[in-house]
Amino acid sequence: MAAKWVEALLALQKVDMRQRELEQRLALLPREMSELKARRDAAVADTHAAAQAARKIEAEIKNCESEIARLQDESRKLQQQSALVKKNTEYQAMLNTVALNAKKISDLESRVLKLMDDFEAGKAHYRKVKTDNDAVTRLAREEFEELLAFAEDVKKELARLRAERPELARKVDSDTMTRYNSLLKGKNAGAPLVKIENGICGHCHLRITPQAMNGISKGAVTVCDNCMHLIYDEGSEEL
Ligand SMILES: [Zn+2]
User: Fold this and answer.
1) Which of 5, 95, 157, 189 has the most beta carbons within 10 angstroms of its beta carbon?
2) Least trusted range by pLDDT, from 41-45, 172-176, 235-239
3) Where are the domains of the chain?
């Protein structure tokens, strides 16, 4: 059995350590959530880009086709006009243009065939990208909702701990409480009250001085001479 002050302080410390753990966990949540949002946004943008790439090819096919139609129309008109032209040079110029158009049309038709292959590949790529990214988005949303629910649970538990604390704090004398609170607020200080294991301080791992061990055996509130943490020995009263 440990001294009474130890029991009271351990009960309080249990609440405070849990509270610290939960607050630290809660502090990580905003970053985790924004990471999930970023992951979802990247997936959505990636799908959008794949769709855009396919649409761009489709638009290029339409441009080629309308250019083919325009050239065909122009050639048809030139051929009709050429029958009425008297001057040989003018007639030759028209035939040259028609021949040039035929070459352009042939090139454009080859280009359209290639673009149609690209378009099929682009659509297949889009479907794959969309399937993959939809899964990423769904997972990110699920994880986000889990974090929201977790945050609610943590906040409820924190409220309960804060409500429990005053009653536990009342059982600790004010000098001990002052020391305990300052240790509690220290950065990365661990637990303010630590157990002695084989004569070694549970916080700084140095040997406890005989004077301090003597204080503990008398049931006095005792601190480690090295790290100033409150210390207790579970077997002290039986000695
Ligand atoms: Zn120590």
Assistant:
1) 5
2) 235-239
3) 19-168, 175-238
CA of 167 relative to ligand 1 center, distance in Å: 28
Percentage of residues in the chain having pLDDT higher than 90: 91
Query: Which pLDDT value is given to residue 186?
Result: 81
Return mean pLDDT, the chain. Answer: 94
* Reported CATH class of domain 19-168: mainly alpha
- Helix (H) or strand (E) holding 235, with range, is none
- CA–centroid distance, 231 to ligand 1, in Å, is 8
Q: Average pLDDT, stretch 37-53?
A: 98
How many A from CA of 198 to the centre of ligand 1?
Answer: 13
204: CA distance to ligand 1 center in Å?
Answer: 4
Which residue in this structure is represented by tokens 């035929």? 102
Can you give the pLDDT at residue 73? Answer: 98
Q: Does residue 238 carry a pLDDT above 50?
A: no
Q: How far is CA 205 from CA 2, 17, 104, in A?
A: 20, 20, 87
Listing from the earlier edge strand, what are the strands of the sheet with 222-223? 200-201, 193-197, 230-232, 222-223
d(CA 102, CA 72): 8
Residue 25 C-alpha to ligand 1 middle, in angstroms? 27
